[in-house]
TrEMBL record:
Domain Radical SAM core, chain residue ranges per copy: 71-286
Domain of life, source organism: Eukaryota
The protein, known as: Molybdenum cofactor biosynthesis protein 1
UniProt EC number: 4.1.99.22, 4.6.1.17
Cofactor: [4Fe-4S] cluster
Signal peptide as annotated in the record: none
Catalytic activity as recorded in UniProt: (8S)-3',8-cyclo-7,8-dihydroguanosine 5'-triphosphate = cyclic pyranopterin phosphate + diphosphate; GTP + AH2 + S-adenosyl-L-methionine = (8S)-3',8-cyclo-7,8-dihydroguanosine 5'-triphosphate + 5'-deoxyadenosine + L-methionine + A + H(+)
Keyword Zinc-finger carried by entry: no
Record PROSITE patterns: MOAA_NIFB_PQQE, RADICAL_SAM
GO terms for biological process, alphabetical: Mo-molybdopterin cofactor biosynthetic process
The protein's assembly and partners: Isoform MOCS1A and isoform MOCS1B probably form a heterooligomer.
Length: 392
């Protein structure tokens, strides 16, 4: 067993020093930006992505303003809003075993503040908002927040990432309030393993929520599965089977390091290894044409209603096409999931800052966004908040 882990670590180290092509029609993915002699490659890569992204600049009344364009020409049209750092699960890769210091309620953005900040972004060109947590459905005003956001001019997609524990009973009303897209997290199909990983019960409730989403017409219903060696890599084919009869998009996610989750390269199952497992059992799998801003590599299996995707944050980053920004539950603004830099929007908002001042703060932060996050091993050494504070 240990020799397999050692071989895996050596393979990852080798991967971090090369550039590869990954899939038909995809862009060149750089394994590590620290490699020697890749600056010219990276420049061409960014230029290509920017040219493709410009084709998707909104042509409606909300063109992308300079506030959302970074120094590399990336257009940020996707805002992720964490509504709370509270959760009804205690997933091991998300929250440290000892728990976290939760943000006092008065320090969280209230509904009016969320809508005001969101309006600043949508009026500047953001056309997609995703609600995250913690667990967003535990906010008592979640329906009102969805309704307010869905009415913002220029917003095309209102999505949510949820653990699905209480979703089934709330989803009909959330759909009426404008929720258009769903990601439901589920890392195992075995109830006992679910309880071990999440430190809570409720596996059947998550399955009920997935089925409820399908019945309500969400298509696809995205299911996020973090793959961890020694825990659930043996279930990959079982998850793929969920896509056979239903419009489910299984998204296999590489295990990522965050504060307190005891990240170790030995736990990481790489995209290439996951894909090899799938293709051996499903040789008809074919690559789909991905959008330049996609974080996932998307595939279709012949005869399956759904799809299979891989999110390769560790072994093949997708920073060149990044169009995402993050508003944390405490009002801090974050331009990169793996970057420690944050700036408060809550404090100036509560001091009485006008929209112009808030836009200047946002634009300055966006302009400071780096070309890409650190390499796989450096990320693990970088100070960052636990995932439950950042938002999924």
């Amino acid at each position: 067993m240990m020799s397999r882990f050692t071989d895996s670590a050596l393979r990852f180290k080798k991967f971090s020093s090369i550039a590869v092509k990954s899939g038909k029609g995809s862009n060149t993915n750089l394994r590590s930006i620290e490699d020697e002699g890749i600056s010219s490659i990276r420049t061409r890569w960014y230029s290509t992505c920017f040219a493709k992204l410009q084709e998707d600049v909104p042509k409606d009344d909300n063109p992308v303003s300079q506030m959302l364009v970074d120094s590399f020409g990336r257009l940020h049209t996707y805002l992720r809003i964490s509504l709370t750092d509270r959760c009804n699960l205690r997933c091991q890769y998300c929250m440290p075993a000892e728990g976290v210091d939760l943000t006092p309620k008065p320090q969280l953005l209230n509904q009016d503040e969320i809508l005001r900040v969101a309006n600043l972004f949508t009026s500047s060109g953001v056309n997609k908002i995703r609600l995250t947590g913690g667990e967003p459905t535990i906010r008592k005003d979640i329906e009102d927040i969805c309704l307010g956001l869905s009415n913002l001019k220029g917003l095309k997609t209102l999505a949510m990432t949820t653990n699905g524990l209480t979703l089934a009973m709330k989803l009909p009303r959330l759909k009426e309030c404008g929720l258009t897209s769903l990601n439901i997290s589920l890392d195992t199909l075995v109830p006992a393993k679910f309880e071990f990983l999440t430190r809570r019960r409720g596996h059947h409730k998550v399955l009920e929520s997935i089925n409820a989403a399908v019945e309500l017409g969400y298509n696809p219903v995205k299911v996020n599965c973090v793959v961890m060696r020694g825990f659930n890599e043996d279930e990959i084919s079982d998850f793929v089977e969920l896509t056979r009869e239903k419009p489910i998009n299984i998204r296999f996610i590489e295990f990522m390091p965050f504060d307190g989750n005891v990240w170790n390269v030995k736990k990481l199952v790489s995209y290439s290894e996951m894909f090899d497992r799938v293709v051996r059992e499903y040789p008809s799998i074919k690559r789909l044409q991905d959008h330049p801003t996609d974080t996932a590599k998307n595939f279709k299996i012949e005869g399956h209603q759904g799809a299979v995707s891989f999110i390769t944050s560790m072994t093949e980053h997708f920073c060149a096409g990044c169009n995402r920004l993050r508003l944390l539950a405490d009002g801090n603004f974050k331009v990169c999931l793996f970057g420690p830099s944050e700036v408060s929007l809550r404090d100036p908002l509560r001091r009485g800052a006008d929209d112009h001042e808030l836009r200047e703060i946002i634009e300055a932060a966006v302009k400071r966004k780096k070309a890409s996050h650190a390499g796989m091993f450096d990320i693990a050494k970088t100070a960052n908040r636990p995932m439950i504070h950042i938002g999924g």
